[in-house]
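Bench notes, bay 3.
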Amino acid sequence: MTKILSEFIIPFLSLIISLLALYFSSKKEKFSLTVDILTKENSEWLVDRASNDDPDVYFFEKYRFFVTLVITNNSSLPITITEFSINEKLVFNSFSLINNNYQVTVKNNWEEVFPGISGYGTGKTIGISIKEGSLLLPPITIKPYESAVGTIGFHYDTSIIGNNTLHIKTSRGIKHIPLNIWKKYISKEKNDYIPIDISELL
């Protein structure tokens, strides 16, 4: 009985324990990200363009979209985020340039009081102020079981209102999450800002 125990049962139990240890170890090392969207309302903005002296670097594209995320690494290994994209077309990566402030005048001060008669009213604006260090600008390395919090932004010329997909490209895989945008804010600001003719730069 002792011989059977030492030659068969104990090695078998050791094998089972080793396999279980390997299973739980690989499970901990498996690529796993949790993404939480903190932005209360996903909306795209056609922003104010009020400056000839300091225009947005992407002035020739109408829309901006910003979203704040919490990204948690549920793995026992570190992970590096290299790129964000929407529908694999709009990209936010290490080459993206974002201004500190964006504003949309949803209601301007100069409004029509009576037909043909205008006067000053109460204006309304919405905006975002991006503080230093608050962007999730790739590359971003997240340690095991830790999180990264920040804002990402996109610029584009054709509305993406509706159902979209956010792709998060990492060193260990790609995370896909649904991203629905159902609201649009269009600037009411009227100014003499004239975008540069891109053909002149080519």
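Next record in the batch:
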Amino acid sequence: MPAAVVASPTASSVPDLIAQHQRAFDATNAAWNDLSDLQMELEEKIGTPKIHMGNLLLGRDSEGNDIRKPIYGYSEEDILRHAAYHIEHALNDEVRRQKEKHRDAMLAELRAAKARQKDAEDACGITAAFATCKKLNDEQNRLMRELIKAKPATLAEAAAKATHLHDVFQTEAADFDDGLLLAVIKSLV
């Protein structure tokens, strides 16, 4: 009886894709960490753009003085929401016009503060760093899709692929949906 011929499996692209994805993953994380450092430096220097919209009366101290807490707006929505209440409850048209004018002035002040922040981000490299992060992230995602589509040729490759994807999902679980997880599972068989 002739001996059965058993073909030895040839390696697939899985090991190379795992290595490429790991390098891309590491580079992407490093870039995001660098961006975060730049953002924190800028935050310490200039703070977050905010507009003083008014004061909340908390009560009075023992001498009868008002105790107030400042109210800040960090977005146009904050300002519009705050102003809408005061405009709606204005006692007459003159007060309403004053409140609308004050709203418009706060919006202009916030827009100017955000423009100054954008200029500072450009000057300190945040804008360029963010573009680099997006580019690296896109490449990492492309490699992830390729890795998911790649069929392992051996049980060892399947195990390596499963381990790598498990590790990625553990660190980036929030970035993946159920459909992607199902594609990963299907790609292992």
